[in-house]
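Action item from last week, closing it out:
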Amino acid sequence: MKWLVFAMLTLLAGCSGTRALLASKTVPYATLEQTVQPGSSTREQVRAALGDSTAIRFDSGNEVWMYTYPTASGAQGEYVILFGGDGVVRKVRSGEVYRVAK
């Protein structure tokens, strides 16, 4: 019985590193930086400027949207936006996440 519990926990730990949020739209980084202003940009403004994206909605009313952007090194960048329940951008995060195969 203990080995079964250990196997299940190992399987769950292995799945925790998978990427559950896949971006649906690639946008230049400069456009993202100019458009998304924490504390002032709203969902409607971001959607109008950048278009729809992959979104995860939480029971609290918060939403996370993700876009990708090309980088100079050839890697793919990820830009994640957190909207509060009031629809205003709370935080953003960006960085290179993977290299594009050529």
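Closing note: The longest helix spans residues 2-15.
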